[in-house]
Amino acid sequence: MLTQIAAFNPKNSFEAFKFESLMELAKSYPDDFDSTQLRDLGRELNIYIDNVKADERFANLNTISELAKLMVGTSKHLGFPLVYRLLELVLVKMCFSAIKIVKTILRNRIGDGFLNDCMYVSWNKNF
């Protein structure tokens, strides 16, 4: 699944973009993508990658979260709703993976405030 998620990486002008990997990733979310939506996602992905590669605002992105923010900032999330839905699912998956790292057995008794602070530090490496 990590290989499939990496196919969304915007680094180096979407060098890692792999249509097949993203379609396989979408199939792992059957509650979010039915067969019709999968077909439509395939069409959207082809147009989407050409669109963002041609848009210089997307040229220097490094992370998937930066990609999601810029999609909303440029309203591309409205033009590519299925791609954005898949991107949101990827971000949620990444967030839960980070929670597993932060919330260890030793930290199971910590309060929500401290856990939120730990997650903030985990997501904002420059902090």
Task: Reconstruct the topology from this structure.
Blueprint: H1 2-6, H2 11-14, H3 19-27, H4 35-54, H5 64-73, H6 76-79, H7 81-102, H8 112-123
Helix pairs in contact: 3-4, 5-7
What does this protein structure show overall?
With 127 residues, the chain is an all-alpha fold. It has one domain (2-97). It has helices at residues 2-6, 11-14, 19-27, 35-54, 64-73, 76-79, 81-102, 112-123. The longest helix is centred in the C-terminal third of the chain and has 22 residues, at 81-102.
Summed over residues and divided by their number, the pLDDT gives a mean of 81
- Morphology: globular
Range of strand content? under 5%
Compute the number of structural domains.
1
What level of helicity do the residues show? 55-70%
Largest sheet: none
Q: Kindly provide the radius of gyration, computed on alpha-carbon positions and rounded to a whole number of angstroms.
A: 16 Å
Amino- and carboxy-terminal Cα gap? 29 Å
User: How many distinct beta strands?
Assistant: 0
Task: Spell out the helices and strands N to C.
Answer: HHHHHHHH
Weakly predicted, low-confidence segments: none
Count, helices: 8
Structure class: mainly alpha
Quick summary of this structure?
By secondary structure, the protein is mainly alpha-helical. Helices cover 68% and strands 0% of the residues. It has one domain (2-97).
